[in-house]
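Here we describe the complex-level prediction in full. Unlike the single-chain runs in Section 2.1, the two entities below were treated as one system.
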Amino acid sequence: QQQVKQSPQSLIVQKGGISIINCAYENTAFDYFPWYQQFPGKGPALLIAIRPDVSEKKEGRFTISFNKSAKQFSLHIMDSQPGDSATYFCAATGSGSNDYKLSFGAGTTVTVRA
Amino acid sequence: DAGVTQSPTHLIKTRGQQVTLRCSPKSGHDTVSWYQQALGQGPQFIFQYYEEEERQRGNFPDRFSGHQFPNYSSELNVNALLLGDSALYLCASRRRGVNTIYFGEGSWLTVV
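The structure predicted for the assembly as a whole is:
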């Protein structure tokens, strides 16, 4: 069973718009939540990550929002650009028995129209 | 600073054959994990190595095995290949005690 649920499966946004991708998890042992960006034919590239003691983290045009009580987190891509067109994966890992193992969402394909 | 490097980038094998994929971790990293990514899906954890031992394993059969060498590089071996093994195989590395995980570009395996 998938430990991290991701939505939507795909989205289309106009250049300059905001892309929002949502993820939810059940395992409270997770304590590190990275996002990866993957272009066709390439490996996933680490984009930004957050820990549950922080509610928001921003790096450039990318922002993660984290809601620990709801066990949800989301990625916002501000001022979306055609070069942002890619598949985005949320993931989670933690200490203890889940240490070192990333559990991925199913991915969201983002298309930015010029 | 070289990132995670994998070889070969593409290969085609026949059902029943065996394959070996190779990975060199990012400089300073000592822990290597392998993931399988089927087309249109998220990566699935296969196993992880550090100190030359398999430390954690995902839900993959024993046909999938690995090895880590003293220089931290790693191999993934798959025996008795099935058509369903066709996928992108990703190597990821990290430094123990640090959660930041980096991926290589992957090895595309096609089983015919």
